[in-house]
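RECORD TYPE: inverse folding
INPUT: structure tokens
STRUCTURE:
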């Protein structure tokens, strides 16, 4: 057994990023059913603690009108988010009545040297030397660097204050706009931000009309979470998002 003589399990594996080309049953098989199998095997092997790495998308869509807390009712809007929420529920069910406890972490958008998706695009833009008209984009996003993520997992492995609980997970400090993200990335390269103001009237409505409501939410809608619960449990993120983004670019360079 993979979990024989194991004290704790951190279940990170899964199918990330929502895509209409992937059937919902595939998300459920990987993010829910596989999690159930691992949780059951862990229970049978006497594992002490099981950490399931879920996602903020188990709780919300691409944006949220208010600062999210763990008390908010989960309302995922796509197959990926629904599968992660189902994974949380099935892990708790599999461990019910056992001596093993579960901790669920819901990280926001993560970044690191090998970031994918939208963050990879931002890093490519930051490496260019062109001025970027991103100053007019108002959306604020909570982010999570790999350094802070690994630190939170290490904390959750042994802290008695997190047993049986669910936590939103993000960097310390304020959320950032897209322009502020690029400015932080360029600071890591020793450059000025190069961000200019460029009003974008009507773009949000055009995106929605074109069937790109999710993209409009990411560009114009906030997605900010509170980490007060995990901080109250004793965890402190080592870095802010601005510090973490700059550090990644300093590490990877041009």
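DESIGNED SEQUENCE:
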């Amino acid at each position: 057994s993979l979990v024989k003589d194991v004290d704790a399990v951190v279940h990170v594996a899964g199918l990330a990023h929502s895509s209409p080309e992937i059937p919902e049953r595939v998300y459920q098989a990987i993010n829910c059913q596989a999690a159930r199998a691992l949780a059951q095997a862990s229970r049978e092997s006497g594992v002490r603690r099981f950490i399931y790495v879920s996602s903020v998308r188990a709780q919300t869509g691409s944006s949220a009108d208010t600062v999210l807390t763990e008390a908010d009712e989960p309302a995922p809007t796509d197959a990926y988010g629904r599968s992660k929420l189902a994974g949380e529920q099935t892990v708790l069910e599999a461990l019910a009545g056992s001596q093993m406890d579960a901790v669920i972490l819901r990280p926001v958008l993560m970044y690191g040297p090998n970031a994918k998706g939208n963050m990879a695009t931002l890093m490519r833009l930051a490496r260019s030397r062109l001025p970027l008209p991103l100053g007019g984009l108002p959306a604020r996003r909570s982010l999570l660097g790999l350094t802070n993520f690994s630190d939170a997992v290490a904390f959750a492995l042994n802290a008695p204050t997190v047993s049986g609980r669910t936590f939103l997970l993000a960097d310390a400090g304020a959320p950032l706009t897209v322009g502020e993200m690029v400015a932080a990335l360029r600071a890591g390269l020793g450059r000025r931000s190069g961000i200019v103001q460029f009003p974008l009237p009507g773009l949000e409505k055009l995106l929605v009309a074109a069937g790109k409501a999710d993209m409009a939410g990411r560009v114009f809608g906030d997605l900010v979470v509170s980490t007060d619960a995990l901080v109250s449990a004793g965890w402190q993120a080592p870095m802010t998002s601005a510090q973490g983004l700059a550090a990644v670019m300093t590490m990877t360079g041009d």
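NOTES: The longest strand covers residues 101-107.
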